[in-house]
Each structure stands twice: as C-alpha cells, then as structure tokens.
User: What shape does this take?
Amino acid sequence: MNGRRRLTQAEWRHATEWPLIIAAVLYTAGFAWQVIDEPPGAIGVALEVALWLLWAVFAADYVVMIVTAHDRMRWFVRNLHELLLVVLPMFRPLRLLRLISVAMMLERRIGPRIQGRVFLYGLSSALLVVLIGSIAVLDAEKHAPGTTITTFGDALWWAVVTITTAGYGDLYPVTALGRLIAVGLMISGIAVIGLVTATLASWLMQRVVSEEIVEEVTDEQAPLRREVAALSEQVARLSAQLDRLTGDRPGPPAANGQHADDAGTDAAQVDASQVVLPRGRRRPPADAEGL
Assistant: This one.
C-alpha cells in the first residue's frame, strides 16, 4: 500500500461540476453555430475538432465517475442516461442532449424550498427542450427534399408549437429522424409543461390555505384581545384611583412629633388593655391599677 487516499466520486463531482457546465454550454453554442450558419473551410473544420474535443471531456468524466463509484454496477444501472449522453453525440442531432446535465447540475444549486426547485427545474428544462428540439430538427430537416423547416426561426416556431401541443400544422418534419425528434419533443413537452403547471397550482393553493389559516388565527385571537383590552382599562382605572388616594393622604407630622406621640400613646394604651395575664385574667385599666 502506498498510503495515497483514493479519490471519491463526490470530490470529483464537486471539483468538475462548473467546468462541465461551461463545457456543455460551449458545446451547445458550437453545435448550434455549426447547424445554423454552417461555417465553411478552415473555420468549419476547427469547429468540428473543438466539438469532438469537448465530447472527449464528457467521455473522460463518465469514465472517472465509474472508476470512483463505490458500487460500480449499481451506479452504471442507475445512471444509464450518463452513458447515453456520451454515446449519443455520435448522432449529430442528438448531441444537444448534453444540456440535460446542465439542468441536473443547476437543480442541485437551487434553493432548499422544494416548490422553488421543482418550478425552476421544470422551467429551465422546458426552455432547454425547446432549444434542443429546434436545433436538432433543423439539422435533420434543413436539406431534406420537400421540407418546410429551413431556417432557425421556422425550427424554433415548430418546437414551441409542438411542445405546447398546439399543432398548427403549418410546419412539420418530413424525415424519419425529424419525426423521431418530434415524438420525443411531444412526450417531453407533456411532462415538462404538466410539471410547471402543477407546481404553479400547488403554489397558489398554498397561498390560499396560508391566508385562510391567518384569518382563522385572527378570529380565534379576537376574544383574547378584547379581554386584554378590558384588563388594561381596569389597570388604568386602578392606577388613577391609587394616585388620587396618594394625593389625599395628610402631610408630614407636626413639629416636635406631637401628633405622632399622641397616636403612639393611644396605641400603647389599647395594647396594654388587651394583654392577657398568665391565669387568663385581663390586665385592669390604668386607673384601676392606681387604686
């Protein structure tokens, strides 16, 4: 054993996540340029070489993910889409499926709220599907005999109409590959648009339920608030009465403590008259003791 720590799949994914997103975006932009503009000569050759180099990056990433997986067979079975993303670039119109990896990576970057994640993931997926479908069908249909889709604008309009299931019929594919792309776009459109619609409906229902709960809590707190208000008024009245009583209290005792001495003498006489003797007899008054 050489003591070197084995690279984990999580570490590799964390280190290559954003570079792969950038590579996927560059791959999509290059392929779109190749399909829409068809650059001639050396530019076209250089662009084709760059696309294959980017594809090699994706293939290397797939190999490393298998090697670093804890259970390779299980990871292979559960991630067949990753294999398709590596193999399908052999077929020109399907190369754009690499953008699916961008949606998956961005989905992990979205906030923790499940509804926000689902909505943004569905919306980004819908936009990516429209882009993929439009460029792919343009590549498949542009030079076909009797085609109606010859420009990127036509392809984009066709993709939007197809994914929303409107189906005007003014533009349609004539090749077998174009029709296969149309089928995939229809199926994915039903799923993605349904996901976005369901998420919006769930969000609206949650807002309505939250407002109803707030109203119920407010109604339940109304009697308590009235009781608190009544107690506050009572405390205010008692405080006012206490202030008046404090203001009516006599002032300080007279000079030389005359009033205080008289009050003390009277209190002492009353207390002395009430003292109980040991045999249960009361102490006689002061006049009686003097006799």
About this structure: Residues 110-207 form a domain with the Helix Hairpins fold (CATH 1.10.287.70). The chain is about 75% helix and 0% strand.
